[in-house]
């Protein structure tokens, strides 16, 4: 029987588009109010804030995150190749803006190691191209808007008219100029993606790609910090293969290691790792995480200051961190053009991490977020701070987990964290002058534990899904050995190729009947299945399109043990020989048979079936090539007196077959060619005998 399809009302797309355009372009007070509330979600939830219920959790989580943010911000400045003050600016502005525009109640948006690394790689490249020395211990240069004491002014300034800055600008000035231009462009891309609703791009970053990318980048981050751990002075490597080049330089200069830095690093790593392990083990008993990083920084700064480690042992220190805010400045347009391409992967990675974390915690705590608004929020978290000498931001998993574990209820906690950072910016920043860089490197390396532990999960990942493991390994290797941007691109392309290969060579099977039922399954996978006499049931587990057409035919011919084209050619050849014998007056056939036995000889023994049922339940769509392929086998098998029946086709496949003329012009034979279950097709085939 044929089920009657519903009649769908056809819409005039032009009229629908015009109606939507008129509606979106109209402006009423209510619509303006809704727009503002959608664009600034804080206007919706803040008036409904349950102060007595939420305030203490928000204050506690905000204070804890603020305490964690300060040492991390100072440490991650090493990754970005910038002064610590800019990291503090970034942490402050990002929390304030996300409080106004974000839809997630729990994510912590701010400085993130992976984003800092991507910014740092672009900054280092542009500094090198501009002729600056990448040695971190070189005297800092003065430039526009930099806050330095007068006693640090004995520096060399470069005239950078060739790269778009017409005034004399030092290394620090040019570095933050590159970072802000890059951040501004990344924010513009994110806002444009939000306007054009391009959030679907994040779907192409699968979990293995993101995990592999993060792990590979973590190896790069770890490698970049080793020179600070042991106190050697080597140039910051640039370009592809920087991980290998950096390790070669480290081993070449290992004899120059600073013993003071080595001892300090060993002590700090032991303390930090021990505290982290104890915190993980007893996290259910602790009301809030131990502020180990802050304690280590305070103690290390005091020891370095009173022990005069910089003067006596030449240990590298953070240097002067000014207080206050630098006047806002528009990012240089010419620099934006230089980094426009670099900003695209930065924008995508920043958005994907923010939205994925937002969705994860929204699902956990039973509320919804708006992905498009998240794109606007993280976009403006980059655009606006770029005017205030800040660089790119993203949500960070570790800090978000801390927020939720310390009672965070809303983004009020982000404002509290921003106030803690503001306190440091206004009053406490100069106190970190004597803080050793090796201590900051230890904090960064210990923070990578989660990403580096992914290596332990490889055997389990391989057991679950081999293809995903290969994608993870390829993405991780490319990100670590080539570059982070290339690694991300390689991961996306490779994962897409894996999908294409899977559809090009999918599983195929002949089905047998489950005894005493009307169900059918793979004959090679299940025991005690009975074959249906004179009927072959073929399953193809993928869409049928131009790329897998040949594999479909080869698999069908192999499993049914019959290639209709070869069989037809063999029959024609045999008939030709028979006609030749008869023409010569020889009534014995070419095989030594009599004329009466010729008919039997024409039906070969390998054709042990009279009907072929194609299970289309796994075929999600067919293109023109797929329709022509089905028409081809219909014709070829018909010439051998074998009927082809289709079963379990979805409506889109049926429509494609109709448009392609598979059922003929008037669809008169459709009920004899198409069935809604395999069993119906089998019963019909048996009735044809």
Automatic annotation (TrEMBL):
Residue ranges crossing the lipid bilayer per the database entry: 54-76, 96-119, 173-192, 212-230, 335-355, 376-398, 410-428, 472-501
Top-level taxon: Eukaryota
Pfam families: STAS (PF01740), Sulfate_transp (PF00916)
Cellular component, GO, one term: apical plasma membrane
Alphabetic keyword roster: Cell membrane, Glycoprotein, Membrane, Phosphoprotein, Transmembrane, Transmembrane helix, Transport
Catalysed reactions listed for this entry: sulfate(out) + 2 chloride(in) = sulfate(in) + 2 chloride(out); bromide(in) + chloride(out) = bromide(out) + chloride(in); nitrate(in) + chloride(out) = nitrate(out) + chloride(in); oxalate(in) + sulfate(out) = oxalate(out) + sulfate(in)
GO molecular function: secondary active sulfate transmembrane transporter activity
Family indicated by similarity: Belongs to the SLC26A/SulP transporter (TC 2.A.53) family.
Annotated protein name in UniProt: Sulfate transporter
């Amino acid at each position: 029987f044929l089920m009657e399809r519903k009649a769908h009302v056809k819409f005039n797309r032009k009229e629908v588009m015009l109606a939507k355009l008129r509606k979106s372009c109209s402006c009423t007070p209510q619509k303006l109010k809704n727009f503002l509330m959608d664009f600034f979600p804080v206007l919706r939830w803040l008036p409904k804030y349950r102060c007595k219920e939420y305030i203490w959790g928000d204050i506690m989580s905000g204070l804890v995150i603020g305490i964690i943010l300060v040492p991390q911000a100072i440490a991650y400045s090493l990754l970005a190749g910038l002064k610590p003050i800019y990291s503090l600016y970034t942490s402050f502005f990002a929390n304030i803006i996300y409080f106004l525009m974000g839809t997630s109640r729990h994510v912590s948006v701010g400085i993130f190691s992976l984003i800092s690394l991507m910014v740092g790689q672009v900054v280092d490249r542009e500094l090198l191209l501009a002729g600056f020395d990448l040695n971190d211990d070189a005297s800092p240069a003065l430039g526009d808007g930099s806050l330095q004491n007068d006693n640090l002014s004995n520096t060399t300034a470069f005239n950078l008219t060739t790269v778009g800055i017409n005034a004399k600008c030092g290394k620090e000035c040019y570095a933050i100029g590159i970072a802000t231009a890059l951040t501004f462009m990344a924010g513009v891309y994110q806002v444009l993606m939000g306007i054009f609703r391009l959030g679907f791009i994040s779907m192409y970053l699968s979990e293995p790609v993101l995990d592999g990318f993060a792990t590979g980048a973590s190896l790069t981050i770890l490698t970049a910090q080793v020179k600070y751990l042991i106190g050697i002075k080597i140039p910051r490597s640039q370009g592809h293969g920087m991980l290998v080049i950096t390790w070669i330089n480290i081993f070449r200069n290992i004899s120059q290691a600073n013993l003071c830095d080595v001892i300090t690093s060993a002590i700090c790593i032991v303390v930090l790792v021990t505290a982290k392990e104890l915190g993980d083990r007893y996290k259910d008993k602790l009301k809030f995480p131990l502020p180990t990083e802050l304690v280590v920084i305070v103690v290390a700064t005091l020891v370095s200051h009173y022990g005069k480690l910089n003067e006596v042992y030449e240990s590298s220190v953070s240097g002067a961190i000014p207080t206050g805010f630098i006047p806002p400045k528009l990012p240089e347009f010419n620099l934006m053009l230089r980094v426009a391409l670099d900003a695209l992967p930065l924008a995508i990675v920043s958005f994907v991490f923010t939205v994925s974390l937002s969705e994860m915690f929204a699902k956990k705590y039973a509320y919804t977020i708006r992905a498009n608004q998240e794109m606007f929020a993280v976009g403006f978290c980059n655009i606006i701070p770029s005017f205030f000498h800040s660089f790119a931001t993203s949500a960070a998993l570790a800090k978000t987990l801390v927020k939720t574990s310390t009672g965070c209820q809303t983004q009020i906690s982000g404002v509290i964290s921003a106030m803690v950072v503001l306190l440091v910016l206004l009053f406490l920043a100069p106190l970190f002058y004597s803080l050793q860089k090796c201590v900051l490197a230890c904090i960064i390396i210990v923070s990578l534990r989660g990403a580096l532990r992914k290596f332990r999960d490889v055997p389990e990942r391989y057991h679950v899904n081999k293809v995903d493991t290969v994608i993870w390994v390829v993405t991780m290797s490319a990100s670590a050995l080539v570059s982070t941007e290339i690694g991300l691109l390689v991961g996306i392309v490779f994962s897409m190729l894996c999908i294409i290969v899977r559809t090009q060579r999918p599983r195929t099977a002949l089905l047998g009947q489950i005894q005493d039922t009307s169900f059918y399954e793979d004959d090679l996978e299940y025991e005690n299945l009975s074959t249906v006499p004179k009927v072959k049931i073929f399953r193809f587990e993928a869409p049928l399109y131009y790329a897998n057409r040949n594999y479909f035919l080869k698999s069908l011919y192999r499993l049914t043990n019959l290639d209709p084209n070869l069989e037809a050619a063999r029959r024609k050849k045999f008939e030709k020989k028979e006609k030749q014998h008869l023409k010569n007056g020889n009534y014995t056939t070419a095989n030594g048979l009599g004329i009466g036995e010729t008919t039997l000889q024409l039906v070969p023994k390998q054709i042990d079936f009279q009907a072929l049922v194609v299970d289309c339940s796994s075929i999600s769509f067919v293109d023109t090539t797929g329709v022509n392929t089905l028409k081809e086998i219909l014709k070829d098998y018909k010439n051998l007196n074998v009927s082809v029946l289709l079963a379990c086709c979805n409506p889109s496949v049926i429509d494609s077959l109709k448009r392609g003329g598979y059922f003929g012009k008037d669809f008169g034979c459709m009920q004899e060619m198409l069935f809604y279950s395999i069993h119906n097709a089998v019963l019909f085939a048996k009735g044809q005998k």
